[in-house]
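=== Structural record ===
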Amino acid sequence: MTVIPEAYLDLLTTKAPLAHLATIMPDGSPQVTPLWFDYTGGLIRVNSAKGRVKSRNMTEGAPVALSIVDPDNGYRYIQIRGKVSKTTTEGGDAHIDSLAKRYLGLDSYPYRNATEVRMIFEITPTSVQTMG
C-alpha cells in the first residue's frame, strides 16, 4: 500500500473536497465522476448506488484514479491511483449518511431513493502524485 504524504492528509481527512474518480468502461474508454469520499485505515472509500456506471466499472481489482483539489487553493492537489480492493453493500446506507455529515452537515443523506441499494467501494492506493 502506498503511503499518503503527511502534508496532504488534510485533503483526505479534515477538508471536504470533491474527488474526481476515473474508472474504465468495458470498451476501454475513461469515465469520470465527481463524488464524496472518506479515508480510513489507508483506504479511500466511495459510495454509489448499485447499477450506476461507476458501480459497474468498479469491480474488485479494477484500476481507478482520483484527483482531489484543495478547495482553498486550486493549484494544490493530490492524485491517487489504485485498485478497487473491496465492494460491499453491507453498511452502504450508514456510509452515505456519514458522508452527508461530512459534506452537508446533515445526519442523514437527503437524496436517498428507497429503490437504490447503496454500495461501498474501498480503494487501495498504489501510487500518489502531489502538487502545491
About this structure: The helical segments are 9-13, 53-57, 92-104. DSSP finds three helices and seven strands in the chain. The first strand starts at residue 19 and ends at 24.
